[in-house]
Amino acid sequence: MPSPAKLTSEDIRRIYRSLRLIRRAEEEIARVYPSDRIKSPVHLSIGQEAVAVGVCDALTGDDVVSGTYRGHATYLAKGGDLNAMMAELFGKVTGCARGKGGSMHLVEMSKNVLGASAVVGTTIPLAVGYALALRREGRGRVAAAFFGDGATEEGVFYESLNFASLHKLPVVFVCENNFYAIHTPLTKRWASEALCGRVANFGIPTHRITDSDVFAIRRIVADAVAEMRQGAGPIFLECHTYRWREHVGPMEDYEAGYRDRNDMETWRATDQLERVGALLDATTRGKINIEIEKEIAAAIEFADQSPFPPPEELHTHVFAGQS
């Protein structure tokens, strides 16, 4: 398979590394979860990594992302610390939210990762508000809002689209459409699947990527962000993708009756991790894989050895300005 246009070999190595790190970190989370060392529910992104990686690879460190409770991929793709993420899942004080938030509330402001929320749709107005601040700041920074297809059924989604378009805010709206709101398929929720058409009515350019092509996602976002830095307004991406594991938890759920394993196998055949990995020589790919395994093992060890929050942590970080 030829290398994608305009991408260097270093770009491909970086994208592969990000995809692989997310996949393997989550597979290890799934492995460890039954031991009860992880102290919060986990919503895994296995199978969906390409969306977060494609978007975040087109951003700079100064740009901001607002992720969902299925946010491990967004956090890591934006440069979040793996040790701090793993410790957060373990409920340890060295975690990115000092062990108080767990998997659904990852945050890393040093990397401009806004605090995630377990409430569906909340990532959207948070990113829009931050984008308003960025526009007034005048440094050309942008914000990206990640959300699932279920969040597009919330009223705040449409209010945010209107406000962002009206004020030409630098927002990349990213819908990770995996076709299910928990266990309810899209076909039982939407009278029309023309999501991009609904968004376009707000005067926002839309893009529909149906194969989760990480390079296509990256190219679209990179082009749009370059224009946003010069004053252009928001764009919207509907990225079709598919979660391989259950909605919440480490297992599979194809026997639950609401979806078919054959659907997952179709997506597995075009797995972006394998696609990008095939563009690298075996030596390079193997070296990256070994490095990642060491990082994940070290992160789990770090989480295991870290202490739980002391009792005096109970009332800290409750109000703004508290240390």
What can you see in these coordinates?
The chain is of the alpha/beta class and 323 residues long. The protein has a single domain, classed as Thiamin diphosphate (ThDP)-binding fold, Pyr/PP domains (Rossmann fold, 3-Layer(aba) Sandwich). Helix content is 41%, strand content 10%. The protein is built from eleven helices and eight strands. The protein has helices at residues 9-32, 49-57, 72-77, 82-89, 123-137, 155-166, 195-200, 214-228, 261-268, 272-277, 282-305; strands at 64-66, 113-114, 143-148, 171-177, 180-181, 184-185, 206-209, 235-240. The strands form two sheets. The chain has a six-stranded parallel sheet with strand order 2-1-3-4-8-7, sandwiched between helices. Strands 5-6 form a two-stranded antiparallel sheet. Helix 8 (214-228) links the parallel strand 7 (206-209) and strand 8. It is globular.
